[in-house]
Amino acid sequence: MEDLTTLTTFVGWCTVISIGLYLFSAIVLLICGEPVKTLHSRMASVPAEKLDEMYFTFLANFKLAFIMLNLVPYVALRLMQG
């Protein structure tokens, strides 16, 4: 049972960190959208008009990966502990 508790704690903290990174990314894009677009446009030579779609795709993929790789395992481990 100790190993299951340790694993649950580990996955729980991974979930918290992932939520923090997701929220940080979303808030930065929401609040500082234009400066970030300008920077990314210059760094990657991508037209600024295309970046909105790319940001949306990034956040959608991040959220999907977060749910599948962090949240679902955490919930499963919590259910296994009873």
Report on the architecture of this protein.
This protein is mainly α and 82 residues long. It has one domain (2-81). It has three helices and no strands. It has helices spanning 2-31, 33-44, 48-81. Helix 1 (2-31) packs antiparallel against helix 3 (48-81). The longest helix is centred in the C-terminal third of the chain and has 34 residues, at 48-81. The mean pLDDT is 93. It comes from Halioglobus japonicus. Keywords: Membrane, Transmembrane, Transmembrane helix. This is DUF6868 domain-containing protein. InterPro entries: DUF6868. Residues 3-81 form the DUF6868 domain.
Helical stretch count? 3
Q: Which runs of at least 5 residues are low in confidence (pLDDT < 50)?
A: none
Written as H for each helix and E for each strand, in order along the chain, the element string is HHH
* Strand composition percent: under 5%
Structural class: mainly alpha
